[in-house]
Amino acid sequence: MDDLFKGLHLNEMMAADIPFLLDLWHREDVMRYTDEFPHPRGWTRRDDVETAWTAYRHRRKMMGHDYAQLILRLGNRTPVGESFRFPLDNRFTFGQWRKPMELRTTMTDIKMHPDHWGEGLGSALMGLVVEHAFVRTKCQLLVVPPNKRNPAAARVYEKAGFTRSKPLSVHRGHYIMEFRRERFEELYRR
Fold this sequence. Notes:
Blueprint: H1 2-5, E1 9-12, H2 18-25, H3 28-31, H4 49-63, E2 68-73, E3 79-87, E4 93-94, E5 97-98, E6 105-108, E7 111-112, H5 121-136, E8 141-144, H6 151-160, E9 163-164, E10 177-180, H7 181-188
Parallel strand pairs: 6-8
Antiparallel strand pairs: 1-2, 2-3, 3-6, 3-7, 4-5, 8-10, 9-10
Helix pairs in contact: 5-6
């Protein structure tokens, strides 16, 4: 099991990763707790590889490092999951939760291939996602939207350092968990 954790890393998506993503997103067991497809992504799981890649590169160029589709990999470069992040505009609300106007805020998530559920990889890789977001962007607040029916996802986020927002507001089955840059500096930069 320890060998599984050696060399874990993430990298930004390349065109060659799109088939892995499309396969992952077409798995009912992976997608059962998510909405159809996050609108901010700019492309859909029904798009072909070329359309998806073109749309991704365009959005990435327009939005900079705050927008990124990441591929989560084992040390042997095998993809095992994905994480997507995008900036929230100042008008963003999620049920009763409102983006703090004064904070540069980014939303992210993680999805793992079911072959790797229960191995602790999600928690380890989510730590890399958090570090990537805070080191590569000027994000001050990182948020995730776990589904209330998916306690495993909430545990992964909690282990990485996220806390449930107050007041807890459920919207379409999801709620917001937050991670502030100050907490990142305290937990990850010791």
